[in-house]
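Bench notes, afternoon.
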Amino acid sequence: MQTHANIEIVIGDDSHDDRTAQLVASRYGDDPRIAYRRNVPALGQAPNVASLFERASGDKILLIHDDDYLLVHCIETLLAQWERYPDLEVAFGDQYETDHDGRIMHAASQRMNIAYHRTAHAAGLQNPPGRAGIVQMFPNNGWLANAALVKRIGYDDHYGTCCDYVFGTRLCLSAKRVCYVNEYVSCYRMTDVSVSQATRRSINASSISAWHFLKCLALPPELEAARRLAMRRLVPIVVSLLARNREARAGLQLALGNLYAYRFGFSPRLYYHLLMIWKATRRPAKESVARLGMTDDQSVGTSRTRMP
């Protein structure tokens, strides 16, 4: 239904059954724009996305995950930015947040985009481009970029559920020009079965992988402020996850070593996390981490690498 119809739709199906294959054959079997492939055995998230990039034949690539969707003008809106900036390499816009059934949650969508620095004031070319990836202004899907750059960056499966954030950061760091459009172009669906929700309280949460990646990332001096801004959001999430998973000492060291993330002790969140850490040291080993019952922090979203 895109208003820009000259598109190729490349599908990588990692399903455990043939329902998707049947749907594509019955509904889109006569559409020459669709290139469907079922992966047997399943590839996993990052290798599947990487295979899509390699199979795509167009000069630009847009990624959309299976439970999300694009607004009908998305491709046309993003593609128009290349007319404004002929040497552009990456463009992205705002995301709506929807519930499981695809109903848009307007207030939540506004909060999400503001949290990710997507505001009218920030519209246009990003300077420096890499900042958009580091502070997670760049979205997990619904972006458009030059195919040659996308294929050169690729999807790295070394960071698990954090692969979206890793890709977006590396893409923006490598791009010469990145443009943000202050307009809704895609929808991010909140579901209980997404990768991020399934791992959000575990030591495998994408927040922890994102923290490791960002901590070790080599950056030029002009982007250290962006790293610090991203860490300010990420460190408290990781501290709470470490406490939940009986890594009290590591959580305490991280919190005390990054007090700027807690406004140098002026944030009540610090003392809440110290209480979590204290409880973690006293909790019997056989007790489930789920017994804590605390809901202070969320993990990075992304399949979904989205930092709250």
